[in-house]
Structure formats: C-alpha cells, structure tokens
Design brief:
Blueprint (H helix, E strand, L loop, with lengths): L1 H17 L31 E3 L4 H6 L7 E3 L18 H8 L3 E9 L5 E8 L3 E9 L10 E9 L1
Parallel strand pairs: 1-2
Antiparallel strand pairs: 2-6, 3-4, 4-5, 5-6
Length: 155
C-alpha cells in the first residue's frame, strides 16, 4: 500500500515538473471568435428559410406541405412593441387556419442574443406546420423589424 502511494506521488510530481499540463505561450496573439473557421460541428439537416414576399402567399398555400420553408419580411410594419400570448396575430397561422389547420401548440420567448419569438404549431391531419413570428432588435429609431416564417412537413 505504501509503495503504491509513493508511486502515485512520484508520478504526480513528475507530471507537474515536466509540464504535461496545458501549455500557454506568453507570446501568443489573442484569437477572436470571428477569426475561427465557420464549419459546422454536426451535420444537422436544419431548414434554410428562403426570403419571400407576401405576394406569393396564395400560391404557397396551394401545396403547403410540398413547399420549401420561407421567411416573409413584409407581412408586418416595423413597430416598437411586441404582442405575446395565444391570441397574438400571426398572419401565416391565420392563413393556415382558414385552410382547415388547427393550432396544436404555441409558445413565445426570447432567444439568448437573438430575437423575441412567438411560435405556433398547426396540423391538418396530413401536414404539420411550424409558424414563427420574430421581433428583431430595435433600430436607431426604436422600431423592431418583424418577420414571419413557416416550415411544413408531412405527418
């Protein structure tokens, strides 16, 4: 028992004296996170939202489950407050409800370092859609840019 404790202490002292721990170069230049390469750590299949105008809403609703994901930037005028709760006005959600979709879930909150978001999940038996309303940080006039985005997948 004494010899194993002695060997363990000897190993710890050797590691400490030889510097097997993390090495810090005193002449190293600090690196900003913006200098790091932007390669994904994981290969997630996250949807990329295509920018779209309100004028394509009528054609989009015809085949909502076969459509790519879209973010609409012109559905709401910029403003300085946001609504919240289950009765908040999401135009895409209302459009889906007029087509027979039902709200199955809702929520709202703030993304750390990002926009305030209000979300609805709607289903019609064959398709499930996620509708998000995003309130971005205010500009120099105190007005928030507001967008809505939609992603639908077959059930």
């Amino acid at each position: 028992m004494r010899s194993s404790i002695f060997i363990l202490l000897l190993a710890l002292i050797t590691i400490h004296l030889t510097g097997c721990g993390p090495q810090v170069d005193p002449n190293a230049k600090p690196v900003s996170t913006t200098d790091l390469p932007r390669t994904p750590r994981h290969n997630y299949s996250l949807p990329l939202y295509q920018s779209a105008k309100a004028e394509v809403l009528d054609s989009l609703i015809l085949d909502i489950c076969g459509s790519p994901s879209f973010e609409f930037e012109d559905l709401h005028a910029p403003r300085n407050t946001f609504d919240s709760g289950p009765v908040e006005h999401l135009k895409l959600s209302e459009l889906l409800r007029s087509q027979g979709f039902e709200v199955t879930d809702w929520g709202s909150g703030n993304w750390p370092g990002g926009p305030h978001i209000s979300s609805r999940t709607l289903e019609n038996g064959t398709c499930s859609c996620q509708v998000d309303k995003l309130y971005y940080d205010p500009d120099e006039n105190g007005l928030m840019r507001i967008t809505e985005r939609i992603l639908c997948l077959p059930l």
